[in-house]
Amino acid sequence: MERSDALIELQDVDLTIARLDRQLSEMPEKRAILEARKRIDDITSLSDRTDSFVKRVEGEISRLEDDVAMQNAKLQTEQAKLLSGKIVNPREAQAISLELDGLRRRKEKTESEILDEMEKREKALEQREKIDQAIEAARAKEAELVEGFKGKGGSLQEEIERLTARRAVLVEALDPDTVGRYERLRAEKSGVAVGLLRAGTCRACRMELPADVADELLSGPDVAECPLCHRILVVASNAHPEE
Ligand SMILES: [Zn+2]
Fold it and tell me: Ligand 1 centre from 2 Cα, in Å?
């Protein structure tokens, strides 16, 4: 392979790999996947918060139920006292009746608190169900996006691998000094290290060379240096004959 042809192809390959890399990292599918994962995280954290709320409410219900059980036990004790026939003093009997009234009122209040808490739990569980559905939908969406990314990103990846293998062949075909010069210029000049001389103009810097300089270059070796941008200048190439 001619040095001039290898250099031109090497530059084409490198520019294409850079473009594909950029495409891969800027794929809208990739951004969408990240967004979907963020959404799943957000919903999961909402779900965790709902769970701990339900747990708290259930703790409160069980505490109130214990209260009711205690209130019932006390009511039974006081009622049994009243019905035992042992209380003969009317004032004592009245005191017990008042105590029973107070106990019943407290019990009613506790029971209504239980109903309130149960309602809270009911609402939280309904919300929990909606959250579960939302998580399921978000996961399905994520899987769909990942599948799409694999398809499109996979073919980009394959193309990058093919070009990387081709690059190795081209580098092998060139002498190390030329490759070193190419790499240095590529790093310095935004990836474009090689210009093609066409109609007296360097295709890399797009500057027209003085006619005598161009003529001199054309009569010299196939690979030279652009006197204006100092890139590698391919003067003549079999693969890229003068159009
Ligand atoms: Zn130039």
Answer: 21
pTM flag (> 0.70):
no
3-173: CATH topology: Helix Hairpins (1.10.287)
How far, in Å, is the centroid of ligand 1 from the Cα of 231?
6
Mean pLDDT of 22-38: 89
Please give the distance, rounded to the nearest whole angstrom, from the Cα atom of residue 13 to the centre of ligand 1: 20
How far is ligand 1, taken at its centre, from the CA of residue 172, in Å? 26
Tokens of 32: 């969408």
Q: How far is the CA of 206 from the centre of ligand 1 (A)?
A: 6
What residues have CB less than 8 Å from 8, skipping those under 6 apart? 194, 196, 234, 237, 239, 240
Q: For 144-190, how does the pLDDT look when each residue is reduced to its tens digit (9 = 90+)?
A: 999 988 888 888 999 999 999 999 999 999 999 999 999 999 999 99
Q: Helix axis angle, 28-83 relative to 90-173, nearest 10°?
A: 170
Give the residue extent of every domain in the chain. Answer: 3-173, 176-234
